[in-house]
Write a structure and sequence with these properties.
The structure holds two protein chains of two kinds. In chain A, about 50% of the residues lie in helices and about 0% in strands. By secondary structure, chain A is mainly α. Chain A has one domain: ACP-like (Non-ribosomal Peptide Synthetase Peptidyl Carrier Protein, Chain A), CATH 1.10.1200.10. Chain B is an alpha/beta fold. Chain B folds into two domains: about 325 residues, ANL, N-terminal domain (Rossmann fold, 3-Layer(aba) Sandwich); about 100 residues, ANL, C-terminal domain (GMP Synthetase, Chain A, domain 3, 2-Layer Sandwich), CATH 3.30.300.30. In chain B, about 30% of the residues lie in helices and about 25% in strands. In chain B, the strands form seven sheets. A nine-stranded mixed sheet of chain B has the order 3-2-12-11-13-14-15-16-17, sandwiched between helices. In chain B, helix 4 packs across helix 5. The chains are: A mainly alpha, B alpha/beta. At the A-B interface, helix 2 of A face helix 6, helix 7 and helix 10 of B.
Chain lengths: ~90, ~450
């Protein structure tokens, strides 16, 4: 098990993950426009399950771990940019 | 009266499903389905939204035993569910999680008592002409089109599918990445298990690592039922996969390159299934062996002008197909295109007319058109754009209203607000005009 990342670690990683999402999904916005605590699905960024698989793929390449549905609730990991970034900070192997 | 069994075969000890806590045998399934049927609340049709494939199967079987039809819409948007309720006022939603029923009557999957497999006498018969399921396609007028399926046809469909895939005599354990409610998942996981001797993994693995784990959790021979999109992300992940014996893909055409890569990586042949919600499964091919499709046993296709019709065997009536087909002398056929109005986003189908109808119905929208750009690669994900004339509406509010009406996958990316659409003098909207608008507003700004 990995250690729980500090809030500072997560904050520092936020811009990088935001850039990765914008780039992977070809979104019409700048990384800074993604609000860290807004929902990524539904009324927030409006992502769907196809986006999730595409993001999962770039995460696995960049950070060296595979996302799994059963070790943490899928909707919780993708609840917000901050939640996703915290998950990456916890699980990353590179 | 002509009847067909709930499950083909007489072996009550055969494994029908694999769950995380162990196998479920035919006898367990029959006893649990009867117990569930006895607990269903009063009402009519079942809107079975169970996410667990085994619970869906139990709900479906309980409905058959209780004479209730299974409603299987192509979307779970609020708009779709409310339309469904208008057509079936006594429907009940069967749910096994925190699924949103959008205010429809809800029945949470109950705890079932421990069952006694030995008390199950025999596999029950269901009248062949009993209406077993209604699958829905998105109609161009905005109202979903009902595709009724009788039990006899569904049984024949499952048996024909198993024969076409060579599963007869060598039943496989099926791992499906596709939802069991939709026609492909329904036919290629549940019906292959009920009437093709196969068993299925109860989950619906999502991430590549989930798929690998699900395959590892079932015994060989293994069959992976998936789509071009799931397959391409699975291969791109580059993870170790358990030995797999057969790959099945449907919902969108698969490129030969991806099929060849999948076969090389897994050592398993990759078969594609061709069909539609209206007709059920019609044909199969091994993608790396050529582009011709071989019809399933007993099905027939003939053409009248540009339109091809399917009939025979498990096909309900005579069904017009949305694809353009070229018949080959040996009875096989090729797909040569499809009618222009249809769109397929990562395997989910709808029509531009349906989407345009939905967006135009939002208060404040004056004019609107969805547009599918040309630049989508093979196996890739095309995304729709939409051009909307809606003075006084903000993009965010418009998207929120649209989300109530259509599936997220069809939401426009981007949605572009414009002053007017490039309609010609007769009010028609030529594709070339939209193409130019797309190049101006979207295309040039893209990487």
């Amino acid at each position: 098990m990995s250690d729980t990342p500090t809030p500072e670690t997560v904050d520092a990683l936020l811009p990088e993950v935001a850039a990765l999402i914008v780039d992977a999904l070809n979104l019409e916005m700048t990384p800074a426009e993604i609000e860290p605590d807004a929902p990524l699905f539904g009324d927030g960024l409006g992502l769907d399950s196809i986006d999730v698989l595409e993001i999962a793929l770039v995460i696995s390449k960049r950070y060296g771990f595979q996302l799994r549905s059963d070790n943490e609730d899928n909707t919780r990991i993708f609840a917000s940019l901050r939640a996703l970034t915290a998950h990456i900070a916890r699980q990353r192997t590179k | 009266m002509n009847a067909q069994p709930l499950i083909s075969g007489t072996d009550l000890d055969r494994v029908l499903a694999w769950r995380a806590d162990g196998p479920r045998r035919v006898g367990d399934f029959l006893a649990e389905a009867a117990a569930l049927a006895a607990r269903l609340p009063a009402g009519g049709a079942l809107l079975n939204l169970c996410q667990d494939r085994y619970r869906f199967a139990l709900g479906f079987a309980a409905g058959l035993l209780d004479g209730r039809v299974s409603l299987q819409p192509s979307s779970q948007s609020a708009e779709t569910l409310h339309d469904l309720q208008a057509g079936f006022p006594d429907l009940v939603c069967l749910v096994d999680g925190d699924t949103d029923c959008h205010g429809l009557p809800r029945f949470d999957f109950p705890a079932l008592p421990a069952v006694d497999r030995d008390a199950v006498g025999a596999v029950p018969d269901i009248p062949a002409d009993q209406l077993a399921a209604i699958l829905f396609t998105s109609g161009s007028t905005g109202k979903p089109q009902a595709q009724p399926k009788t039990w006899g046809k569904l049984v024949a469909n499952g048996r024909a599918g198993a024969a076409a895939l060579g599963l007869n005599g060598r039943p496989h354990a099926i791992v499906g990445t596709v939802p069991v409610q939709h026609s492909y998942g329904f036919e290629s996981t549940l019906l292959l298990a009920l009437h093709g001797g196969c068993s299925f993994w109860a989950g619906k693995p999502f991430y590549p690592q989930d798929i690998a784990a699900a395959l590892a959790a079932v015994p060989a021979p293994r069959l992976l039922v998936t789509t071009p999109f799931h397959l391409s992300t699975l291969l791109a992940a580059g993870i170790e996969l358990p030995p797999t014996d057969l790959l099945l893909s449907a919902t969108a055409p698969l490129s030969t390159a991806l099929a060849a890569e999948a076969e090389a990586r897994t050592g398993a042949p990759l078969l594609e299934i061709y069909g539609s919600t209206e007709s059920g499964q019609l044909a199969s091919r091994r993608t790396t062996a050529g582009d011709a499709w071989t019809l399933l046993p007993g099905t027939r296709i003939d053409s009248d002008g540009d339109t091809a019709y399917a009939h025979g065997a498990h096909v309900e009536g005579r069904v017009a197909l949305s694809d353009l087909l070229e018949a080959l002398p040996d009875g096989r056929f090729r797909l040569v295109g499809r009618h222009a109005d249809l769109v397929n986003i990562a395997g989910r189908r709808t029509s531009l007319a349906y989407l345009n109808h939905q967006i135009a119905a939002i208060p404040g929208v004056v004019d609107a058109a969805f547009f599918l750009p040309d630049d989508a690669g093979p196996d890739g994900i095309a995304r729709l754009a939409a051009f909307v004339v809606a003075p006084g509406l903000e993009r965010r509010a418009l998207l929120a209203a649209l989300r109530e009406r259509i599936d997220a996958i069809f939401l426009p990316r981007p949605l572009v607000l414009v002053d007017a659409l490039p309609r010609n003098s007769t009010g028609k909207l030529p594709r070339s005009g939209l193409q130019a608008l797309y190049a101006e507003k979207v295309g040039d700004g893209r990487r």
